[in-house]
Every structure is written in C-alpha cells, then in structure tokens.
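Each record in this resource describes a single protein on a pair of labelled lines. An example record follows, reproduced without changes.
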Amino acid sequence: MVYKIFIAVFLAFMIYNLFRAMVVMNKNSSAQPPMSKYIGRRVMLSAIIVFILLIGIATGLITPNPRPY
C-alpha cells in the first residue's frame, strides 16, 4: 500500500509542475523561472514513475490486470 501511495504522490507532484508551467507560460514575466524548468521536472518525474512501476511489477509488489478488456 505504501508503494501505491508513493506513486500517487509522484503523480500529484507531476500534475503540480504541469500547472506551474502553465502559469509561467500565461504570465510571460522575466522575473519567474523559465517554463522549461517545470516541464523538465514533469518529464523527469514521468520517467521515474515508469521506472518505479516496472520495478514494482518485476518484484511482485504490483500485479497487472490480467484481463484489460
């Protein structure tokens, strides 16, 4: 259960970075950090989440759905 909570926290942080990038894009101010900073974090977190899911499936902590339909 802790494993799934850990993944959910990463997903929430990824969505937070997505919305931060949107705010920076809409304000168009030079005082804020560049939008690529938040987009880069989002891509990095996506890669980490995929890696964590693969480890979870390989170790048996997460079981995939046997019937996807």
Notes: The chain has two helices and no strands. Helices lie at 2-27, 35-59. Residues 4 and 69 are 23 Å apart (CA to CA). The radius of gyration is 16 Å.
